């Protein structure tokens, strides 16, 4: 566990903080300013709770039941009840890193001083993260409006010492046992606190932040595999010239072209071996790789802007304002986050699609310009990578289904009080699957392209130094090179791990310099 400490204050949190806590077990600490802001906001809530006038979330019911005024002696029960009743998730457990991101981001908003939660509740949230206690959260239960209600409720239930949670050893136990084992006292929720723990876009935001980190690696990896495929197909690198991309100045396009050009520097294969079958132009999947990869990069940049704004936000309803007002609002609506989650699923599907088209071209003897059918050792006796492309095609087909936007849907809830919802949690869940699939798709292209480059080398041609570095690193990682047919799944799994861990990028950068 990484013992780096992330300090949670009253200002925005960075994407790097989220990844550090969610994935790498970084410790969490409340700043003195956060504790002070928490205490000040709590004084406002306590003052409102003492007044006879009803205030939503403080002395009323919730949602469609907000018209009922709740007497002081029932308010603790009200807060417990909202957590218990809203912890209604179903289906498989959500991944540990997602739940940790969810908890951390809710703590971030609580610590802003706009929710009215007491400092000791916030400290208990930090204590749970630092102890490695992860509430059991289920796949289904959020509509992405009024926050990720059911997922956050399961987290709040653990704070109360109820329900089940996973300990740092990975064992699921009753929450009260885990809290006791780590010396953590369950919280007794007071006015507004139950509502404040449930009312945020934290789940969809956490998944967006982690998807952006993964996709950044995959887009750079895809620039590399596109370059390897271009080289193996004896394509021309002239289409990567900076002056061509300067006249269509989409930023990502220029970045991808530059990455590919640097990978191909010094190649003895590109653009010099077309005499036997002259080509005026390479196929779109080869020639237009910078345009497709680059458009996806620009989409990532926009999504990162949205994520940054959401990380700087305090999402709750009602919110405590510095002038002492407690006001209802609609900031919990997940539309801004949901839209970019869906947008990322679209560009990821298209990136997977163009990767698969290059793989198919490498395997087809009628379009591969001298490579053996399916890159097989003895075609006919050997099938080579024929079925690897089937697997890749199946993944691409699922990516296209996952690209159907969730945010275009809405379903009314809470007796029509909550009559338009974002479905942002659903958008985030399908994006996680899409990102996972994309890593496999890129890995199959890498496996095919490196085999093809090695076959070209055996034909007496000299691959680029960066290509040679990629081949050597992939082989050292356990994905074998050309030869007779063998059990292929372990090689593809090794290539998948190699890509998703960022080792492809790390392998070529000593030759190319840092790639964007």
TrEMBL record:
Keywords: Cytoplasm, Histidine metabolism, Lyase
Post-translational modification: Contains an active site 4-methylidene-imidazol-5-one (MIO), which is formed autocatalytically by cyclization and dehydration of residues Cys-Ser-Gly.
Coarse class of the protein's main subcellular location: cytoplasm
Residue numbers bearing the 2,3-didehydroalanine (Ser) modification: 146
Protein's UniProt keywords contain Transcription: no
EC number from the UniProt entry: 4.3.1.3
Sample GO molecular function, one term: histidine ammonia-lyase activity
InterPro entries, A to Z: Aromatic_Lyase, Fumarase/histidase_N, HutH, L-Aspartase-like, Phe/His_NH3-lyase_AS
Reaction(s) the record says it catalyses: L-histidine = trans-urocanate + NH4(+)
Alphabetical list of PROSITE patterns matching this protein: PAL_HISTIDASE (PS00488)
Pathway linked to the protein: Amino-acid degradation; L-histidine degradation into L-glutamate; N-formimidoyl-L-glutamate from L-histidine: step 1/3
Top-level lineage group: Bacteria
Covalent cross-link site, 5-imidazolinone (Ala-Gly): 145-147
Signal peptide extent: none
Cellular compartment(s): Cytoplasm
Entries under Pfam families matching the protein: Lyase_aromatic
Enzyme class: lyase
Family matches, as SUPFAM superfamilies: L-aspartase-like (SSF48557)
UniProt xrefs under PANTHER family: HISTIDINE AMMONIA-LYASE
Protein family (similarity comment): Belongs to the PAL/histidase family.
HAMAP family, alphabetized: His_ammonia_lyase (MF_00229)
Name of the protein in its database record: Histidine ammonia-lyase
Gene name in the database record: hutH
